[in-house]
């Protein structure tokens, strides 16, 4: 098992946590995980590996069967979901699961109002979200008249208005075209720049490769790896055990036998840079010499 990264005092601390559903299924088993301020953390794993169950503990949607989780200074077992949701915002994979008001404007204000913020503070936060997501012309639109990508952005903006310390994005690129996926990448970077911890539950290896963020791998209810994406993706044993494939560009790069075996290439730009710097070696590989 790879060592955990992050040396700052953790904002989220998961200690020996297991969760057993009422039907007796153990969804996560003896998980230890610390997440510090300023981190972008991807939680990877195949379906049923436990990644979503784990993250739903962060805002109290689920509570540990055994073990303990603290968010900030709060023990999640002892706090109400409403209080935890002010610290951990969760954007669901399907925006229809959290979008229900008749206009975008009302949707953006709902979280602040629900947390009993003043009208002045609500207006200030909503205006900031409108500006960041460029939603000024959509405030009177019905969210359900928007396409899936636009609804997902409204859901993200409504979470941003509350301004929780942690933003969880559950499969943010699902159903997105290339433009939408790039937008998600830009939003993750924006959230980080604004001081948020970002937790990604995702199968999108390309997204993780572009971010080269800390990557936690779940398999059969257990955490089996925790390191930078470049290190995790280069570990064939871990990837095979979890049933995962690195980004296609990484597979392509590794197939060029003259590449530095100590480095993992995660993006098109990184391999293009290497090719420009090693033209002669590329020609030799291509000619079979």
TrEMBL record:
The keyword Membrane applies. Gene3D superfamilies: P-loop containing nucleotide triphosphate hydrolases. It is a peripheral membrane protein. GO terms for cellular component: ATP-binding cassette (ABC) transporter complex. One of its GO terms (molecular function) is cobalt ion transmembrane transporter activity. InterPro entries: AAA+_ATPase, ABC_transporter-like_ATP-bd, ABC_transpr_CbiO/EcfA_su, ECF_ABC_transporter_ATP-bd, P-loop_NTPase. Coiled coil: none annotated. Keywords: ATP-binding, Cell membrane, Membrane, Nucleotide-binding, Translocase, Transport. Its main location: membrane. Pfam families: ABC_tran (PF00005). SUPFAM superfamilies: P-loop containing nucleoside triphosphate hydrolases (SSF52540). It is found in: Cell membrane. Residues 12-245 form the ABC transporter domain. The keyword Cell membrane applies. Belongs to the ABC transporter superfamily. This is Energy-coupling factor ABC transporter ATP-binding protein. It comes from Halobacillus litoralis.
């Amino acid at each position: 098992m790879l060592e955990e990264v992050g040396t700052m005092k953790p904002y989220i601390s998961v200690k020996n946590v297991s969760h057993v559903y009422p039907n007796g299924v153990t969804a996560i088993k003896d998980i230890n995980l610390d997440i510090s301020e300023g981190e972008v953390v991807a939680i990877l794993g195949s379906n049923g590996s436990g990644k979503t169950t784990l993250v739903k503990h962060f805002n109290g949607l689920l509570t540990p069967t055994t073990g303990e989780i603290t968010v900030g200074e709060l023990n999640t077992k002892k706090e109400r979901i409403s209080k935890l949701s002010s610290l951990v915002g969760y954007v669901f994979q399907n925006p229809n699961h959290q979008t229900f008001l008749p206009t975008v404007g009302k949707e953006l204000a709902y979280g602040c109002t629900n947390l009993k913020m003043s009208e002045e503070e609500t207006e200030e936060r909503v205006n900031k979200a409108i500006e960041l997501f460029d939603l000024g012309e959509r405030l009177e639109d019905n969210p359900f008249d928007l396409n899936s990508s636009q609804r997902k952005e409204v859901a993200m903006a409504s979470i941003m208005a509350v301004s929780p310390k942690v933003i969880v994005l559950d499969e943010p690129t699902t159903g997105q075209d290339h433009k939408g996926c790039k937008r998600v990448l830009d939003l993750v970077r924006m959230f980080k720049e604004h001081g948020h911890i970002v937790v990604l539950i995702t199968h999108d290896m390309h997204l993780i490769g572009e971010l080269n963020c800390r990557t936690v791998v779940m398999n059969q209810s257990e955490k089996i790896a925790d390191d930078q994406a470049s290190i995790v993706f280069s570990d064939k044993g871990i990837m095979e055990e979890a049933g995962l494939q690195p980004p296609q560009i990484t597979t392509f790069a590794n197939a060029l036998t003259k590449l530095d075996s100590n480095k993992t290439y995660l993006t098109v730009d990184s391999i293009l840079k290497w090719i420009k710097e090693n033209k002669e070696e590329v020609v030799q590989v291509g000619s079979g010499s």
